Here is the input.
Amino acid sequence: MGEFELIRRYFTRPSPGAVVGVGDDCAILQTASGMQLAISTDMLVAGRHFFPDVDPYSLGHKALAVNLSDLAACGARPLAFTLALALPSADAAWLEPFSAGLWALADAHSCELIGGDTTRGPLNLCITVFGEVPGEATGRTRTYALLRSGAQAGDDVYVSGTLGEAALGLQHQLGKLKLDAPAAAACRARLERPTPRVALGLALRGIASACADVSDGLLGDLGHILERSSVGAQLDDAALLACCPWVRSGIDAQLLRDCVLNGGDDYELVFTAAPAHAAAVAAAAQASSTAVQRIGRIDALSGLRVLDGAGQVLATSSGSFDHFSQDGNSDRSNPI
Amino acid sequence: MGEFELIRRYFTRPSPGAVVGVGDDCAILQTASGMQLAISTDMLVAGRHFFPDVDPYSLGHKALAVNLSDLAACGARPLAFTLALALPSADAAWLEPFSAGLWALADAHSCELIGGDTTRGPLNLCITVFGEVPGEATGRTRTYALLRSGAQAGDDVYVSGTLGEAALGLQHQLGKLKLDAPAAAACRARLERPTPRVALGLALRGIASACADVSDGLLGDLGHILERSSVGAQLDDAALLACCPWVRSGIDAQLLRDCVLNGGDDYELVFTAAPAHAAAVAAAAQASSTAVQRIGRIDALSGLRVLDGAGQVLATSSGSFDHFSQDGNSDRSNPI
Here is the structure.
C-alpha cells in the first residue's frame, strides 16, 4: 500500500463544512461572521505518551480527544482537524482500527478531517484542531473564549468528572499498584479513551471566569490559571479525594492523593466562577450531563494550598509534568 | 532546562496579529471580513526528510519554508503557525540556532508563532501554517485561493525559479555525484534553505488557473494538477532543462533530466494560465522578483508527456514520491 492509497483508504472523507478539504496544497476554512477560530496542537510520541502496543482504536480516539479537550477548555465548538502521522510502515491491520477510533470520535463531535501529512518514521501523531468561539465582530482584541487569565479572588474552583483514574490506571499497567478487576478496567478506559468535556466547555461560556483542561495534573494545570490570573487558591482535601471514585477501595491514601493532585491524562476541566454563578454552573453541568464538583476557592494570596478538615496545609505545588525535567511514560499535553 | 523554560526562552514572542497567542489552551485567530483561512501541515522526520546532523539553523528555516510553500501554492498571505516538536533532549546548542532560523523566516513573512507542543522523542518537527485568502463573504463555497483543480486545455504551464538543484545537492551529499564547488554550494543551499514563493503566489491570484508547489518532483506535482483538473499536458524538454542552471556544467544529461523532472525539494510553484494572461504572468513574475519559465501546455489528452525538439516523447510519468512505496533520504511534503 502506497502513501496516496493509504490516505485515500483511511483518511479521506467528504468535509462539507470546509471550503476546500483534503487533496489540495492547503485546506480552506471560512469562519462564520462574528466567530473566531480556536486552534490547538498536540503531538503524541510512542513510548512516551502511549505504550507502543496500545490498542490502535483507542490511540485513534485519544489522539483526537486530547486536542478536543483543549477546545473544551476554551469553550470552542469543534469544526475540523489536520492529522500528521509518522508510521514505521503502512500496516493495514493497524491503520484500520486506528482510523476507526479517530473517525468515531470525530463524528461524535462533527469535527472534519481537512488535511494533513503522512510519512515514514518512528510512530508519531500530531493533530491540530480548529474550533469556533464568538468574538467581537468589530475588532481583533475581544474574545468570548474561556481563557486561563480571568480568575478572581473569591471565585469558586470546580472540576468536572473524576480525577486520578488515568494515573491509577497507568500505575496499574506499570505494575506499581494492583487494582481489583473493576477498578483496573475503569481506570484503563480512562487512561486510553479519555472523554473531552466539549459540551461542558460550551455550556460554561459566559459563566466560568477561567478554565483549563487537566492534562498534566490538577495542581499544575490549575497553577497555570493562578499564574495567568495573578491569584492563588486553597483547595479542600476531602472534596478532592471525593473526585476519585476509588477513594474507598483500599488504595493507599497518599498514593491516591498524589494521583488526584498530580496525575495527568484526566482531560477533565478545572475552572473558576464567581459564587453568584453557582446555580448557573450547576445548570451547565446538568445541561451537558457532566458531573461538576466544587473543590475550593480562589484567594488573593499567591500559590496553591490543599487544606485538610482542620485547616492544616497538606500539599502545595506549582509543578506541572515536564517532558524535559522528569521521566515517565505518560500522556500529557503541553501547549507551548 | 525544563520544558516551560525551553518554550519561554526559544519559542515565546508577542503575536499581535492573534487575539490569543502562546500560553493558553488554544490560540485564537480572527480572520478579516471576507477572508478565509488557508491551512497546511507538514511533518519532518530526522533521517527521512533531513540528515540528522544538518545545520539546525537551516532546519529551522526549512521546517517553516516547506509549509509557507503550501500557502504560496494557494496564493495565501502568511499569518501564523503552530510548532510541535519532539526532541531527544533539551539542548541549548541546538535550540538556539534552530529557533533563530525559524524566526528569521517567520519574521521575513510576518508569520507569528501562536502555539504548539514540545515533548521528548525521536526528532520530529510538525508545523501547521495559517494564511489568508479572499473568499465570497456571503457563503462558504467560493474561494479565490489558487487550487489544483482549475487547469484548462490550452493553458500554458509555467514553473518559477529553478528545478533540480535540490536533487543534485542531495545526490552530491550522498556521494552519488561529484559537483564542482560552486555548484555544490548552490545546490546544497537550495536543498537546505529553500525559498517559498509567497510573493509570486500572491501575485498570481486571479491570473493562474491552477497552482501547486514542487515538493515531490515536477512530474508528480503537476500530475496532481492534471488529475484534479481532468486534463493532460505536454512539456518541452529543452525548456525544462533550461530551468536548471547547471545544464552546461557537464552533468550527465539523463541524470540532470531526472533531477529536473522527478527531484523533490525545489519548493518552486508549477502553475497554469490561459495564453491571454501571458503578459499578466510576466508582470506577476516581475512584481515578485521571481523568474518564471513557460515549460509546456495543457491539453485535453490525459497524462503527461515530455517532448524533445523533434516531437518525440522522452518521458511520461504520473508517479510522485511516495513515503511508503520507495526508499530514500529526501525531503518531500505530502499533503493528505
User: Anything to note?
Assistant: Residues 56-74 of chain B form the longest helix (19 residues). The domain at 156-316 of chain B is CATH 3.90.650.10 (Phosphoribosyl-aminoimidazole Synthetase; Chain A, domain 2). Chain B touches chain A through 86 residues (CB under 8 Å).
